[in-house]
Write a structure and sequence with these properties.
The chain is mainly beta. It has one domain: ApaG domain (Immunoglobulin-like, Sandwich), CATH 2.60.40.1470. Helices cover 0% and strands 69% of the residues. The chain contains no helices and nine strands. Strands 4, 5, 6, 8 and 9 form a five-stranded antiparallel beta sheet that branches. It has a four-stranded antiparallel beta sheet with strand order 1-2-3-7, with no helix packed on it. It is elongated, with a radius of gyration of 15 Å.
């Protein structure tokens, strides 16, 4: 498992990933990784997660850009002192890679800001140092 953390705009984002061997197949090739994200509001005002933006880089340096509304079908409002957790999956054509990106957030006055999703590693055992 890999752990990464970032802090921006009074939000702390933690990311953990894990290789899922039972969903992976070297012959295709496809390697599945699960990841868990925790977003904590360390400020004094709520904010709504509007959109997500990911850059997913495989071992060959190919970048897949993923954009979409919310996360796992939700656009949560994260209250001060509270956190939102979710998990999802990422298939890669290589045994290791990286994910990083940002969330677009909205304040109560509808102003937008971005919080960083820290870069974290996706790696099958013994695939990368």
């Amino acid at each position: 498992m890999a752990l990464a953390e970032s802090n921006s705009y009074n939000f702390q984002v933690n990311a953990i990933s894990r290789y899922i061997p039972e969903r992976s197949d070297k012959n295709i090739p496809v390697y599945f990784f699960a990841y868990w994200i925790t977003i904590k509001n360390k400020g004094d005002s709520p904010a709504k997660l509007i959109n997500r933006f990911w850059n997913i880089t495989d071992a060959h340096g190919r970048v897949n850009e993923v954009k979409g509304e919310g996360v796992v079908g939700k656009q949560p409002v994260i209250l001060p002192g509270k956190e939102f957790e979710y998990n999802s999956f990422c298939p890669l054509p290589t045994e290791f890679g990286f994910m990083q990106g940002f969330y677009e957030m909205s304040r109560e006055d509808n102003s937008l800001f971005k919080i960083t999703i820290p870069q974290f590693r996706l790696a099958a055992p013994n695939s990368a140092n």
